[in-house]
Amino acid sequence: LVSRENHPERSTVHVGGVPIGPGTVTLIAGPCAVETREQTLEAARMAQAAGATLLRGGAYKPRTSPYAFQGLGEQGLRILAEVREETGLPIVTEVVDAHDVPLVASYADMLQVGTRNAQNFGLLQAVGAAGRPVLLKRGMSATMEEWLMAAEYIAQRGNLDVVLCERGIRTFETATRNTLDVAAVPVAQRLSHLPVIVDPSHSGGRRDLVLPLSRAAIAAGADGIIIDVHPRPEQALCDGPQALVDTDLGELAQVMRDFPPLL
Ligand code: PEP
User: Which part of the chain is the DAHP synthetase I/KDSA domain (predicted)?
Assistant: First the structure.
């Protein structure tokens, strides 16, 4: 269903009216985690000023440590809905458990499946049946075949509104959090008709790498990028070191203008 063999035209997925697909480079930005209403609204305004047309933000956080901030849950979803009301930005947010899919889908414009759940087949089937577009991160150790088969699980439930997201893979290199597989963009676009975007924030794990990796992603033909921003990253409850701050946003807007989308 997701293969380009039977569907040669590349697809566009619409999220609350915002297109992700060929001919555009969509910027999705916002806080890694929803912490407070004020922080989320500030981050959303920063994102919008940089040209973002979709707001990201996690209410359910899949953390390596069970002692780390796990997200605000439904309260976080309510904050996201309020911020959507104020800014007009449709919401992209992660769901980590199949049982939560109906609840998260009742607030979200797009459901995100994170790298740690990229082969959680029950969750993939549940989001496939939820009636919302899905942002499917690549598993951190997933081959192209495994990634596309994960998308196939969603599509099989009748949902072809799936956007693939390369977010860095595990390699021997420890200087960066993950290794951005730039080649995954054109390879996935050749194998699948689905749009392919890149997460430079979770790939590098460092603020200073976000803009160079964004340039690389767009130059490789990505249909969009998804970026963490935070008004006060030193106080962030999740992934502060990779969040862009106010002073980075002019340059991010320039990156978006510099590269005309590849057709
Ligand atoms: C995220 O985008 O908030 C996230 C946790 O990303 P990943 O699943 O790619 O680590």
Answer: 17-257
Q: Output the CATH code of domain 22-60+71-258.
A: 3.20.20.70
Q: pLDDT tens across 5-64, in order?
A: 989 999 999 999 999 999 999 999 999 999 999 999 999 999 999 999 999 999 999 999
pLDDT tens, 140-173? 999 999 999 999 999 999 999 999 999 999 999 9
Q: How far is the CA of 205 from the centre of ligand 1 (A)?
A: 11
- Ligand 1 atom at minimum distance from 114 CA: 8
Structure tokens at 157: 């439930």
Ligand 1 pocket test, pick from 35, 141, 181, 202 with the greatest ligand atom count within 8 Å of Cβ, gives 202
Residue 1 in tokens? 């269903």
Q: CA 95, 100, 101, 102 torsion: positive or negative?
A: negative
Q: Which amino acid is at 65?
A: S
The response to whether residue 177 sits with its C-beta less than 6 Å from ligand 1 reads: no
